[in-house]
Amino acid sequence: MQSYIKIIDTLNKGLRYFAAILLAVMSALIVYQVLARILGQYIDMELPRWTEELARYLMIWLVFIGASLAVRYAALIGMEAIAERLPVKPQKGLRIVVLLVSKVFYVVLIIYGIEMLGHVSTQLSPGLKMPMAFVYAAIPAGGLFMLLNSFAVLFETMRGGASREFFKGAE
Q: For residue 170, is it within any domain?
């Protein structure tokens, strides 16, 4: 179990860098779009419509990558009111049940995400003319990363580990 957790933490380190790159590129595209709109008022220039589309697609990937990291570092929104009123052992049991139920959702994301890829494999995006499968691949990829991270959280919970901080081990 410990080696699996180390592998997942290494994978998550890579996912954090990937998310940072996505965020930086998305931000640069949005700034470029805004500047082009402002300058377009003063000079005759065509607005770059592809930047808005690409920024939207990068945001979709960023949400799924971020959600998988949030699973690992217990940063997802949750209802803690009931759990906080329970003694320690039932809290741990409730957390394990919640993790197991969430795994079902992650598997559904993976299965239906892959199925959806088959439906959109021939579609092209309107502005960039890139395959829409690239965009929809975020669903099963995010589901897979969430599933892998939930196993690491489950192993730590069963072992009695505490919740982790997001930047722990990021150095």
A: no
